[in-house]
Structure formats: C-alpha cells, structure tokens
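WARN no homologs supplied; continuing
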Amino acid sequence: MTTTRIRPHGAASGPGSGLLRSAKALMVAATLSVSFGAGAAIAEQDGRTNLRIAMPGTWASHGPTATNNFGARVIYSIYDRLVWRDFLSNPDGSGIELVPGLATSWEQVTPTEWDFTIREGVKFHDGTTMTTQDVAFSINNTYGEGTEPFAASGTIASVVAVDDKIVRVTTKNPDPALLARMATAMGNIYPQAYYESVGKDGFGREPIGTGPYKWAGRVTGESIRLEAFDDYWGEKPPLNSITFLEVPETSSRIAGLLTGEYDIVTSLPPNQTGPIDNDDATEIRSVAVENVHMITFRQSREGNVAADKRIRIRKAMALSLDRELMADKIWNGLTVAGTYDFPGYGEYYQNRPALPFDPEGAKALMAEAGYNGEEIHLRVVSGWYVNMDRAMAVGLEMWKEVGLNVRVEFVENWGQMGEDNDGYASSDNMWMTDPGGGLWFSWGREGGHRLNDWPEKGVVPDNVQAFGTAIEQGSDFETRAAAYNSLLDIWDDEVPSILLYRPVEAYGVRKDLDWTPYTFFWMDFRANNVEDNG
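OK structure emitted
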C-alpha cells in the first residue's frame, strides 16, 4: 500500500489550508516588542510579530521527546516529524488525518517493513542538510536512549537508511499503528552529528531540529526564546520570535494579557476567566485536551491499603466520587468524567461511560473488605495540574461521606513527591490516534512509563498483556476493537488509577491574533495556524 499526498504540512496548500494566510497579510502584521532576559527591546524589520506567551513554568530540557505540558508546547515549533497529524482537518483543532511531513510518502513493502521517502533539501537549524542517516539515527536513538514515554515500544526492530532517499523501518511484528507512532514525538528528526557531539543532556539544553523556529536561549526561571528559521523548508515562519515567559501566578498572567504585556496566556482555571471574557481586546479559547487527570495508586508499595485487589478499596474510592459533577462544576461544564477512551481514536472510539457515582456500592465494597478506617495517603504537587487542588478538596469530602479515611498531602514540586505514599496525582495522554496509545501505551507495552504502578512492580498482568498485544499486532479492525474494549473492561474492574476527567486548556488570547489551539498540549505557530491582525 502506497500513500502519497500533494500538500505537505506547512506548505501553502497544506493542512488547514482554509486558514492559510497570504504573504501580504503576514507582512503587514503589527510589530510588537518583547522583553527577554534583561529586558532588551527586540523588533523585526519585516514587520513580523514577536509573540509573548505566559505560562506557569518552563522546562530545563527540550530534547525531541519532551512530553511534559510546558516542554511540549515549546518543542512543537523546533522539530518536524516524518508524519504529521493534521489537527486542522477539523476546524476545532481535533483533526486526526495523517499527512506527509519530513516523509513525502510511504509504502508498506512487507507486513513488517515500511519504506519512507524522505523530503530533499531540508535544513537543520545549524545550516546542515538533513540526510536519511539523520532520520534513521533519530528514530533509533529515540528508542535506544530510554526516553520516556517513547522508549522500547516493542514494535521497532530496526531503522536503516536504504539510500539517500529511502529510510526503511522494520518492526518486530506487523504494527498497524506505525504511522500514528511516527506522527507523535517519536517521529521528530534531529542531526546525528550535533547530538553525538554534545550528548543527550547538552542537546536538551540547546536543541536543533528542522522546525520553523530555532532555539535562541533560556533564562532559568524566567523565559525561553525561539527565533524564526527563515531557511525552513515549508512556508516562511509568520512570527519573528516566540518567547515563553514563566509566570506562576494565574492572576499575573491574566493581568499581563489585559495590559498587552502578553499575547497568549495558558493554564487558566475556567472559573477565573471573567476579566478576559469581559475585556474588548481579549478572549478565552478553550479546548478539552486529549489527556486525563487521575489518582494513580502505588500498588507495589508494601502496606498500601489500596493495593489489595481482593478488598477493592481502589474501586470503592472511584465509586464514591461523583466525577460527572466534579467535571461539570470544577470545569464550568466544559468537559466530562475521564476514561481511557478518546474521540481521537476515530473509528475505534467506544464512547464508553466512566464508572458511575455509586456511594452505596462503595460502602458494600468497603464492608466486604473489612475496611476499618485505615489511612490512605495521597500526595499532590500543588498547582501543577490546573484545578487538581480544588478536585482533591472536593474528593476529600466525598470520600469522607462513605467512611474512607483519605489524607491528601500537598507538596511544592516533584522532587518532594517520593514513593512513600499510597497514591499520587498524575495525568496521561492519548499519545497517538490509535487505541495502541493511552492505556496500553503507558501501562502495558514494553517501556511503558506506568509499569511500576502495577501490583508486581514492572510486571504487566497476563490479561492486560494478552489484549494489549492483540491491539498492537491485530491485523483487522474487529480484532483490535474487541481487544481494546476488553482492556477497558479490565481497567474498570481493577482501577489502577481513578480517572477523574479530561482537563480543559483555557487560553487567554488577543482577539486580533488568529490562532487555533489544538486538542493536545502542542502549540502550533506554523504559517497555516497563526496570523497577527493587530
């Protein structure tokens, strides 16, 4: 099967072409100034905007697989991928169509071999030309370095440069989700020579990719700056620079947007957006992201009351939470209770309901367990996840109502999290547009970053392994869909985590900045998704 497409991502007729901007419109965009580091004013002669984005924090490393909420926002502008997910194939930014990126086409030559034709003449930010050797190195290295959550996927056997145009990816078994994998950060491409010269840590501090914006520096605790890469292979970057400013206080981010200090602000609780809604020059653009906030149990921890499957305390904790009410009230009706079933899975989406609110059922499970009020200790990094502190305050009252003795400890940072607790606040992503993402990606397949939270640390239960393998290797839709549904059944029965809700990313944005947020944490400032009309 050969797949080709005339319109590459980022080209003038590429994904989201209905939103593409004329060069003339870009050239007349208002010139803004931005403060960086010591506060020097920066202006661009051709009139392109210096965009300023305020978010709660910045991240130290921006290697090709940076996946934390803050780092992911930055790297989407630095790197390109073999295959692109065209978010703008749906106008609301939730599209799942896969289109060419750094690969112009691909062909499945055998059940386990895929040949990718690599785009010619692409430049890295250091001026060197991308080669098929760089492509092969990037994908091999992503797995070999053990970088969570993409290491050791269990599917890729080898990646080799066949010649100066073709890269062959060989999988250990037929992998129906390979293209979806290559459309995640797993498919990001970077220069082999530079990476090997500076090492993994050095590369993360000063990354190089082929994206429309290049690294221009980080001031620890203050900001990260990217600048336009005008040798970009696609359409010219529409912005002169992007500065991500570290502004932890929500009120300060809002005030800065209202005064014109920032153009976009992120991570706003929906109940605090009134000043932006009421301002003539700003607005809120909200999207329920492909993520789920959750309480994950440390089942392998000795003495953890919630770890014993027989006594079902985990499920009692889940049933005693009215998660639909929490989603409605905490997120102002913008989202729903969480599951590992995402609309982004396309035809595999089951529209599966979350576990119900059933306090009497919770009490029955507790009685069956012989629960005598033993303390269940949860730990939360305060302020890390939007609205998590509020959710835990509500949850404590609901757990108390059924007789569960839950203690929530709030800590300042992840360094204080430790493992001396029964559970912790966390989140997980859909990861890719296939049911091989999400639950199986994180909790089952080799290298999954949640494996240590199973009862036998690092060991996947046999039933999870069986259905997950069927998803990963299944050759037809019916087989894969049935296995996926069975895996969701197991999850609801064993409750390794309480899935609270899909969080909402509420961005405050200047009204005259034409930009669409996506249903993932990526922020895209390529030419098909941004125009400054200010």
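The chain has 14 helices and 21 strands.
OK
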